[in-house]
Write a structure and sequence with these properties.
Belongs to the nematode transthyretin-like family. Residues 1-24 form the signal peptide. This protein is of the alpha+beta class. The chain has helices at residues 2-24, 110-114, 118-126, and strands at residues 26-38, 44-46, 51-57, 69-75, 81-89, 96-104, 128-129, 132-142, 158-166, 168-173, 176-181, 188-190. Strand 1 and strand 2 (44-46) form a beta hairpin. The longest helix is centred in the N-terminal third of the chain and has 23 residues, at 2-24.
Length: 203
Amino acid sequence: KGEYHVMLLLVSLLLLLSSSLVEARGRNVEFNGTLHCYGDDYKRYPMTGVHVALFEEDRGFDSWWDEHDLLDVYVTDENGTFNLEGYHYEFWHSPTFLIKVEIECDETSEWQRACNDVELKKQCSESAMPELSHYKVAKFSHLVEYDPSGNNDNYRMRYEQLECEFGWRKVYHGGNIEYKQDYYPGLSCTGGLCDLRCTLPSE
């Protein structure tokens, strides 16, 4: 009987320790920002009606069996604004997050006609779905929390005023703003741990 109580106590302690570890690895995060595309006239067009999704990112060993977990989805408003939030935990490490952008290609959209991004135009011209030849989508991702230094202490609970853009990008030179075509067309974001273009390895 005494051995039974000792075993029960050990099991209870292990469960308590496990729950503490899981709780310690849990993170709540918020992403607020805007989505724009530059035209040939250097004008910044808000990307309206675009699906922006928040995912928990699985890297390395975890990615063998665990896919990225969808946590939140937001459709951008007339100003290209998006707001995302979510919570996730991992047992072995602190979770990290990424955003994905899915654009329904629409030739009648004012901002899509004006947008000069090469990669967006390419995907919209090639991505027709077999069963719906008229329906095309372009997909992009950004590793907001990819920190080249590898320092997990830099992770934040809130990322505000993310500026995510397609097409031309702003370059500050001698105190003046210049606009240059990005060497890597597609989605670029500033305001997170990874500025400019940080995509998933498969993209």
